[in-house]
Structures are given as structure tokens and as C-alpha cells.
Specification:
This protein folds into 2 domains: 9-164, no CATH class; 169-243, no CATH class. The chain contains 9 helices and 9 strands. The protein has helices spanning 20-36, 46-50, 54-62, 75-83, 93-99, 113-134, 185-194, 204-214, 222-243; strands at residues 9-13, 41-44, 65-69, 89-92, 136-139, 144-148, 161-162, 170-175, 178-183. A hairpin with a 4-residue loop joins strand 5 (136-139) and strand 6 (144-148). The longest helix has 22 residues, at 113-134. The two termini are 25 Å apart.
């Protein structure tokens, strides 16, 4: 299978601006991303995610995510589950506030003392969940956890990043006159070329099977997808030879 980038945890924060707990989620997520776990996390922009952001949805499909919601509506968690997969973990600020006996957070632009305490609690909770998730093997094929493995020490200077730049490549191809975006396709093509697989119809089934690991392919359209993949792989190999 293609070697996708190093595993990180995606943080999906509530984007509600009319409630103080929404402000708490964003400030807590920012603290995790920039201060507590910058090398291990990326932010997933909820509005872009809902609007069809391919990079964000691709990341959430292959890597564990933590939904950070302000209230029991759980907009971030529900959106993640609808468009990519069930979040690996979920935090609800209103639940944390009640659990720790805090007063209700107030202020959307400037939080009161209780709101600032809620930011601390939420950020620390999310950071702990990040550590837990990175200590487990995450299967991109099934979207679930496999066996537990030791935490790996970071070898690079940590930086807060966005899932848009997560390194998961997406390529758009034409299938039956429709444009579809396929996750990891450039990596799949590169892997096939490195293995010396010659473009041709005999490769159609193998290409399709690997693509289906990372993308949903309608059963009735498999033949059309296979033909399109062969065509695109031929173009990819031709381009690589020309550029060499």
C-alpha cells in the first residue's frame, strides 16, 4: 500500500460564534495546536470541511480525529462522522463545565474567569486524548484502532499545521463524464511505476483494487473507474518518462 504521511491527530473544533462555549472550543484547540501538542496535531477547518474541502475530509478519513464541541448539539462530531468517519474521540465543553462544577462561561469575544478555566480544562483533556491516540496503532483501511504500540519520540521541530497541508495527495480524474477526486492516487501511481508495472488493460483490476482501499467506488461504476485509472496511469508514466 502507498506510504501515507506520518500519523497525526486532527482537531475539529466547533465553529459556533454565538455562544461562549464555542469560543472555549476554538481557544482550547488553538492552545493544543500551538502550545501543548503542535508536532502531533493538525487543525481541521469545520466550515471548509462542511463545504467539501477535500484535504480536510481526506485527512479525517485516514487519521484519528478529536471533535471538540461546545454543547450537546455536537456539530463537529456529527459533521466528521457524516463526511469522513466517526471521530476517534469527542470532547464537549458543556459536559466538562458541569463535571468540574464551573460556573457557566460567558462572553464570546472576551471570556469570563469560568470561561478561561474551561479553556484550560478542555485543552488539557484534548492533549491527553492526543497522547492516547498516538499510543495506539490506527488502521487506515478500517478506520479503527489496531494493537497498542509505544509512543514514538518526535524528531522534528514541532509546528502547528492545518490538515490542508497534511501531505495526503488527491488527484481528480474523469469517469463517465464526471470529475471525481481520488485520495492517494499519485502515491498509488508512483508505487506501481517503481514496481515496474507496465501500463495496460491487464493492470486495470489491480489498480482498481488498491484505489478502493482509500476511496469509495460504486459497484456499478467499477468498469468505468478501471478504464479511467488505466488511462491516467498511462499518462502519469508518460509524463514521468518525459520529465526524466
Amino acid at each position: 500500500m502507498p506510504d501515507l504521511p506520518q500519523k497525526k491527530v486532527g482537531i475539529v473544533a466547533c465553529s459556533g460564534e454565538e455562544l461562549a462555549v464555542g469560543t472555549v472550543t476554538r481557544l482550547a484547540a488553538l492552545r493544543v495546536l500551538e502550545q501543548l501538542r503542535p508536532g502531533d496535531t493538525v487543525t481541521i477547518c469545520l466550515p471548509l470541511f462542511l463545504a467539501g474541502g477535500e484535504g480536510d475530509r481526506a485527512f479525517a478519513r485516514f487519521y484519528p480525529t478529536i471533535a471538540v464541541d461546545g454543547c450537546d448539539k455536537r456539530c463537529a462530531a456529527r459533521a466528521t462522522e457524516q463526511f469522513s468517519g466517526k471521530p476517534a474521540a469527542s470532547v464537549v465543553v458543556s459536559d466538562l463545565v458541569a463535571e468540574h462544577g464551573l460556573r457557566q462561561p460567558e462572553g464570546t469575544r472576551r471570556l469570563n474567569e469560568s470561561g478561561l478555566q474551561a479553556v484550560d480544562l478542555t485543552a488539557n483533556q484534548v492533549a491527553s486524548l492526543v497522547d492516547e491516540l498516538l499510543g495506539k496503532r490506527w488502521s487506515r483501511r478500517t478506520g479503527t484502532f489496531a494493537e497498542t504500540i509505544p509512543l514514538a519520540a518526535s524528531q522534528e521541530a514541532p509546528q502547528a499545521t492545518c490538515s490542508c497541508g497534511s501531505g495526503i495527495p488527491i488527484q481528480k480524474i474523469a469517469v463517465n463524464g464526471q470529475t471525481v477526486a481520488l485520495v492517494a492516487l499519485p502515491l498509488i501511481f508512483e508505487q506501481f511505476r517503481t514496481a515496474g508495472k507496465v501500463p495496460g488493460d491487464s493492470l486495470a483490476r489491480e489498480l482498481l483494487d488498491v484505489v478502493k482501499v482509500y476511496n469509495e467506488v460504486p459497484t456499478e461504476a467499477e468498469e468505468a473507474y478501471a478504464a479511467a485509472l488505466v488511462r491516467e496511469y498511462e499518462a502519469f508514466c508518460s509524463h514521468q518518462e518525459t520529465a526524466a
